[in-house]
Amino acid sequence: MAQEIEHTQLPVRGINIHVAQVGKGELGTVVFLHGFPEIWYSWRHQMVAAAAAGYRAIAPDCRGYGLSDQPPESEEASFDDLVADVLAILDAFSVPKAFVVGKDFGAVPAYEFALRHPERTRGVACLGIPFSPVPFSFETTMPEGFYIRRWGEPGRAEADFGRYDARRVVRTVYVLFSGAEVPIAEEGQEIMDLADMSTPLPAWFTEEDLDVYSELYEKSGFRYPLQMPYRSIHKMPNRLDAKFQVPVLMVMGEKDYCFKFPGFEAALRGGVMEKFMPDLKITFIPEGSHFVQEQLPEQVNQLLLGFFRDHPVVAA
């Protein structure tokens, strides 16, 4: 590529956050927030495309993930921290206003940042997770073997993951989460038992990609990634009075297993999100999986760049 991705360790609120960035930003800045088991690298295709189109692309490793520092063990994981981290990153780079793009649990701080800091937000685009005005709750709507319930149980995932190295764990999660079925374990099974080494990786995810993820999870481990998001979902903000002042784009793969979560289809097809977002566009990608930005990068890039172009940053 013409522009190389640069890497910085940025002091943010008492820890160092690893930030990947590329592009000169003639047309503005885009901040990309990843999910689990993702890292900054999950946005590699979008970063390159945004930079080539004239934007500055910034993708941090969430605190406790990848090359970012681990928060103290005594510190409880909070979505408030992720929102504050985005603000601190913008301040550190002297960015007055940015597009914020979130995927998976990264969508939660993306939505929340737009609500708390509309003056710093040009628009928000989210993949895979619709806006919810109340915390997600799966205790009564999903079976005991549902992966979010299992991983929310202290010690359960640690024991499950601990049977394998980081590479095997990341590999298994990518295999399971790229499918159209919700990962649910039977009695006597753990989530890691739902796929084995004979199950091939998705065609769009190479062994070299897995190398990158594995190396970074070997460094970070899974302590904080299990806290954020799986043991923090109940602490999502209540936003029944939310009214977004910025444009919103929601992109959903129709083969994303999250589509089958309780309430998600109503949010996406039943007009629920429109109640909170006067300027909302929802786009479905028929073949898209949960990792749609890696699976079908050209389609996602086209949608994101179109959204950015439709809402140009006005010079002060």
Q: Can you tell me about this structure?
A:
With 316 residues, this protein is of the alpha/beta class. Helix content is 32%, strand content 16%. The protein is built from 11 helices and 8 strands. The protein has helices spanning 44-52, 79-92, 107-116, 147-151, 156-161, 166-177, 207-220, 223-230, 264-269, 292-295, 297-310; strands spanning 6-12, 15-22, 29-33, 56-60, 98-103, 121-127, 248-253, 280-285. It has an 8-stranded mixed β-sheet with strand order 1-2-4-3-5-6-7-8, sandwiched between helices. Strand 7 (248-253), helix 9 and strand 8 form a beta-alpha-beta unit. Helix 1 crosses helix 11 and helix 2 (79-92) packs across helix 3. The model has no long low-confidence stretch (mean pLDDT 95).
Keywords:
alpha/beta, 316 residues, 32% helix
What is this entry, summarized?
With 316 residues, the protein is an alpha/beta fold. The chain has eleven helices and eight strands. An eight-stranded mixed beta sheet has the order 1-2-4-3-5-6-7-8, sandwiched between helices.
Radius of gyration: 18 Å
Largest sheet: 8 strands, mixed
End-to-end CA span: 31 Å
Helix content: 25-40%
Categorize the overall geometry: globular
Number of strands: 8
Order of helices and strands: EEEHEHEHEHHHHHEHEHH
Structural class: alpha/beta
Please give the count of helices: 11
Strand line-up across the major sheet:
1-2-4-3-5-6-7-8
Summarize model confidence as the mean pLDDT: 95
Strand content: 15-25%
Spans of at least 5 consecutive residues whose pLDDT stays below 50 are: none
